[in-house]
Amino acid sequence: MSDVEEIRLEPCEPGVLTPADLRTLFLFEKLTDEQLGWLATHGCTMRVPAGGLVVREGDPAEAFFVLLSGTIALTRRVGEDEVTTIRTEQRGVYMGATQAYLRDDGVPRNYMASMRALSDSEFFMVSAADFGWLMREWFPMAIHLLEGLALGMRSSQAAIGERQRLAALGALSAGLMHELNNPAAAAARATSALRQRVAAMRMKLGKLAAGKVAPDRLTALLELQEEVIERAAKSPTLTAMQTADLEDALGEWMDERNITGGWDVAPVFAQGGIDTACLTELESRLASPELLDQAIHWIGYALETEQLMSDIEDATGRVSSLVHSAKQYSHLDRAAHQWIDVHIGLESTLVMLAHKIGDGVEVVKEYDRELPQIPAHPAELNQVWTNLIDNAVQAMSGAGTLTIRTFREDDRLVVSVGDTGPGVPPEIRKRVFEPFFTTKPVGEGTGLGLDISYRIVVNGHGGDISVESRPGDTRFLVRLPFAEPASS
C-alpha cells in the first residue's frame, strides 16, 4: 500500500438498515427499540469494492465501522512493510473510532491500523461524534469505568515505567561503581608499592656507589639491568604451575650463592619470566661475587617497578575503558538519532552489565562485523539490549551460556539474544510483550521491560521483535531495517 494512495469511498446511504436489521448485529442486540431507531437514523450503509482502502493508519479517526458482509484485513505499518494483523469475514466485527467516547484530553484520536476490503464489502457506519455521544449518553457508568481504566493504565504505566528506569539506572550505577572500584583500588595499591620500591632503589644505588664499584662495573650493571627488563617484557606468559616451578629453581640458585632474602626476591624474577640461565649469565658478566648480592636486589627492584607500572597502566586503562563504555551506553555526547554500528551498543551494554552477568554465565559473541550501519536512536536500543540481556541472565539463574549474534536477514539486521534457561512455555509466549505481563515473582518485575522494548523496536525504529523458545534454547530476535523507515 502506497503512502499516497487515496481513499475513495462510495457515498454512504442513510436509512438503509432498519432497527430490526441492527438488532441482528451482536454489538447492538441488547439496545432498546428507541436506541436502535436513533442508530438507524444517524448511521448509514457504505459499500467498498474489493481492494479498496477503507481507513488508513495514522489518519484522524472520524468514523466507526461495523462489517455487514465481505472480507477485510487490518494491517499495521512496520518500517516499509505492511503487516496483516487481522483477516476476517465475521459479520458484526467493528473498527475505527473505538475510543471516540473518551473525554478530550488533548491526545489525538487516530486510526490505529489500516483497513482494506479484500472482497466487495458492506459496512454500517456512524460518525465518531455520534458514536461518542451515544456511548456517553446511553452508558454513562460504563464510560466512567472505561475512562478510569484507560487513564489509570496510562498513569500507572508512566509511573511504573519511570520507576523501572530509575531502578535500572540505580542497578547499572551500582554495577559500574563496583567495576570501577576494582581497577581503581588496584592502581592505588600498585602506586603505594611503587613508591616503596623506588625509595629502595635509591638506597640500593647509594650503597652500590658507596661500595667503591668501579665506573665500568657500574655501567655494565646498568646495561645488564636494561637487558633483563627487556627480556622480561618479551618473555612468554607462564601458567601458575610453571611460575611456581621457576620460583623454586630461582630460590635454590640464590640459596647456593648466599643471596640475602633470595626466596623473597625469586618470585619477582619468576613473575618476569627470568630463569636461572639468565641469572648465571648475569653472574658471569659481573665477575664479582661480592657485587652479585646487591646487583640481584637492584635488578629485582627494577623488575618489580616495571611490573607495578604495568599494573597501574592496566588498571587506569580499565577505568578509561569503563568510562568510555558508559559514555557509549548513555550517548550523552551524541545526537539522539544517527547512523550507528550496532555492535558498539551491544559491547557497551555488556560492559555495563558485567557485574550482573557474573562469572557463572559464559558470554558467546557471534558478530557479523561486515554488517553496515543502521539509522537508530542508540540510547533507546541500548535500553532494549539491557532488558533482553538482563532477562536472559535472570532466566538462567546466573549460570549458563548467553549468546549474542548479529546477522543479515534480507533487508534487515538481526540481533539475537539467546540463553540456556528453562524456556518460555508456549501458552504464554504470545503474551510476553504485553504491558504488565510478567512471569517473575511479585516484586521482582513490572512486566514493562519487554513492552518498552517492543515499542522502541517496532514503533520507534520500524523493526520487529519476536521470541523463539524451547527448554535450553530461548532466543529473542530483534530485526532492524538498514534504511530509514518511510515517513507516515
UniProtKB/TrEMBL annotation:
Residues 27-135 form the Cyclic nucleotide-binding domain. It comes from the Bacteria. Keywords: Kinase, Transferase, Two-component regulatory system. Residues 304-484 form the Histidine kinase domain. Its EC number is 2.7.13.3. CDD domains: CAP_ED. It catalyses: ATP + protein L-histidine = ADP + protein N-phospho-L-histidine. SMART domains: cNMP (SM00100), HATPase_c (SM00387). One of its GO terms (biological process) is phosphorelay signal transduction system. Pfam families: cNMP_binding (PF00027), HATPase_c (PF02518). This is histidine kinase.
